[in-house]
Amino acid sequence: MTAALVPVARRVEHVMGMPISLALRGRHTDDGEADAAWAAVLASLRETDRVFSTYRPDSVVTAIRRGELALTDAPDEVGEVLAIGARAERATDRAFSVWRPELDPSGVVKGWAVERAAGALRALPDTDFCLSAGGDMVCRATQGEPWRVGIEDPHDPTRVLAVVPVRDGAVATSGTAHRGAHLVDARTGAAPDVVAQVTVVARSLTDADVDATAAYVLGAKAADWLGHRVGRSGLVVWADGTTTTVTA
């Protein structure tokens, strides 16, 4: 059976300051179980926003920044996210950091949060899903063909550079095409000028998202660093428009 012959139900909601979209196909697409799973996804993401938002004055991260809450008194998920960030910091010789100079776990949180929220979808029997958050996505395909994820050209958003088939895994992209120069090398505070975009394919969106950002801030070393990451593949788009494909 091909993906084209399997009906797909789609849902969209705005959470964590970005569009969250879901495509479902298979046994549970538009029934009570699908509704409950979608509600659980949104509830999980809203809880993540309550804890990790750097914009909300009532978030846990904001309280830590203001010195009103010690890290040792923060919820367990804060320690989990900071541990992921610390591993990425060591792997990049401190180019990636969640301290810039104050706590900013944004480079970890999105992928981690969406991967965690997708647990409710994985519990749906005989059902494929593709959960997207601001363009990064985690997918499972057991009932039809792999989901086909397009990689946008950062120099021309109307052009697709490549299409990645995903059966059970995740795709994340880091770059400045849509949000400007918000990604910087934590050691220098400067945005890389030789790389335009990094897309990473991995088993989990936590890994894909962190490694896409980490590779991007490494600038000229992006492709070489990514090539040494076990279980990762991807596409580096350079500022001059050339590309480098990285295989797992």
Topology diagram in text:
Layout: E1 8-15, E2 18-26, H1 32-52, H2 60-65, H3 76-91, H4 106-117, H5 119-122, E3 127-133, E4 136-140, E5 147-153, E6 156-166, E7 168-175, E8 195-202, H6 205-217, H7 222-227, E9 233-238, E10 243-246
Antiparallel strand pairs: 1-2, 2-3, 3-4, 4-7, 5-6, 7-8, 8-9, 9-10
Overview of this structure, please?
By secondary structure, this protein is of the alpha+beta class. The chain contains seven helices and ten strands. It has helices at 32-52, 60-65, 76-91, 106-117, 119-122, 205-217, 222-227, and strands at 8-15, 18-26, 127-133, 136-140, 147-153, 156-166, 168-175, 195-202, 233-238, 243-246. It has an eight-stranded antiparallel beta sheet with strand order 1-2-3-4-7-8-9-10. A two-stranded antiparallel sheet has the order 5-6. The longest helix is centred in the first third of the chain and has 21 residues, at 32-52. The model has no long low-confidence stretch (mean pLDDT 95).
